[in-house]
Design brief:
Blueprint: H1 2-21, H2 27-48, H3 51-69, H4 77-94, H5 101-116, H6 120-140, H7 144-168
């Protein structure tokens, strides 16, 4: 019971951090804040016994660090994206919890590719789809914090889409 409570609290903390991350329009800042949120999510899944969510979020932390240090012009950038996407599939298969794992694998692999493009507005739009997949996973593993976090991520992404769209005009 203690692990479940800790897992839920970490999911709620991730919610707050995720909300803040989508209110920035700079890639580097977004990556730093997202890495903190991902760490909380990763630990939340660990405490809840959600092996696919835990394992794939470790890869997401590595992804965020790689994207922070490499830019689009780096010769290692796109090979890194391919390796990370393949790592998502491989790690997802190793931590397989049944077909529900496909939701997380698909969502996080898609986020890896979209994040690699370096466009925060496109990332916000992709969150509308990928977070929906992750919500379904969170329902199955009964992560209340995760459901809340992804719901707020969707809501926050919509706010960011509107906010930064209006700034362009």
């Amino acid at each position: 019971m203690k692990n479940i409570i800790i897992g839920q609290l970490l999911g709620i903390l991730s919610t707050a951090i995720t909300f803040i991350s989508y209110q920035t329009n700079k890639k580097q800042t977004l990556l730093i804040i997202q890495t903190l949120a991902t760490l909380c999510t990763c630990l939340s899944f660990l405490f809840l016994g959600a092996s696919t969510g835990f394992a794939l979020n470790i890869v997401c932390i590595v992804r965020n660090i790689l994207f922070y240090f490499l830019d689009l012009r780096s010769r290692l950038y796109y090979p890194g994206v391919i390796i990370l996407t393949l790592a998502m599939i491989f790690v997802g298969a190793l931590s397989w919890q049944g077909y529900i794992s496909l939701l997380m694998i698909t969502a996080l692999a898609a986020n890896t590719v979209i994040l690699s493009l370096g466009n925060p507005q496109l990332l916000r739009k992709s969150i509308l789809v990928t977070s929906t997949l992750v919500i379904i996973y969170n329902i199955v593993v009964f992560s209340i914090g995760g459901i809340l976090s992804e719901s707020i991520a969707i809501f926050s992404s919509v706010i960011g889409i509107i906010r930064f769209q209006n700034q362009k005009q």
